[in-house]
């Protein structure tokens, strides 16, 4: 093989090798990005009173309280030991609500369920329980308030919501998004009801 031909082939190989290496790097799949940790906001309310009515069919309990008057609560099937509630019982009813929110860039895989926590009363104890539902959606950001750490968005069904952001990771993330941007969210909402004897 003439020396000039070998020289041309060598130069071509020197050019092709870096290009091949760049092509291999470009074809490598990107590393998955972990979404920011979810933020959880909870509220609690309680009432003390005397059970007036118990409807086993509808699982409704009506309680007369000094401050709230008559309070009727519907106890879901997740609340065990419902049959222990009797008319005339003096009880303390606690309502706890929690909302967990996780926001991430579009395309990020979010968990099927967010960890709020749910508990049931052991057999033989007073009724207690929690109902948790997780919804994943791609939403449109309406506003970001970095001073108060809140984000307002519209869901795919047209529902507008404003939610507080508590975790540092999530607060840092909302500073990178703008109104009109579409992001993935996972929202878990839980309501817990507990009934226990009240001090006389």
Describe it.
It comes from Neoroseomonas alkaliterrae. This is Copper-binding protein. There is one protein chain. This protein has 200 residues and is of the alpha+beta class. The protein has one domain (39-197). Helices cover 16% and strands 44% of the residues. The chain has two helices and eight strands, in the order αβββββββαβ. An eight-stranded antiparallel beta sheet has the order 3-2-1-4-8-5-6-7, with helices on one face.
TL;DR of this structure?
This protein has 200 residues and is an alpha+beta fold. It has one domain. It has helices at 3-27, 168-174, and strands at residues 39-55, 60-65, 69-74, 90-105, 128-145, 150-154, 160-164, 182-197.
Write the layout of secondary structure elements.
Elements: H1 3-27, E1 39-55, E2 60-65, E3 69-74, E4 90-105, E5 128-145, E6 150-154, E7 160-164, H2 168-174, E8 182-197
**Count of strand segments:** 8
Compute the number of structural domains.
Answer: 1
Low-confidence stretches: 5-27, 113-128
Let me know the average pLDDT. Answer: 69
The major β-sheet equals: 8 strands, antiparallel
Taken from the alpha-carbon principal axes, the silhouette is elongated
- The span between the termini is 107 Å
Q: How much helix is in the residues?
A: 10-25%
How many helices?
2
